[in-house]
Amino acid sequence: MNRQQGLSLVELMVASLLGLILSSSILSTLYASIAANKLKVAVESIHENSSLAMHFLASDIRAIDFSGCLNTGIRGASIVSTGRVSEHLLRFGVILAETENYQNSDAISFVSALDAGFELTKSMSTVHSSVDLLAGSTVANTREVLITNCQVADLFTVSGQWNSRLYHEMPENSSANLSSVYPRGSMLYPLSVVSYKIARGVSGRAGLYRKVNARYFQELIPNVEQLRISYASKQGLDNKLLYRNSSKISNFDDVTSIHLKLLLSSPTEVLKKRSYYQNLQGQLIKAPDRRLYKSFEMTIALRNRGLGSE
Question: In CA terms, which of 64, 76, 187, 296 is 20 to 30 Å from 87?
Answer without folding.
Answer: 187
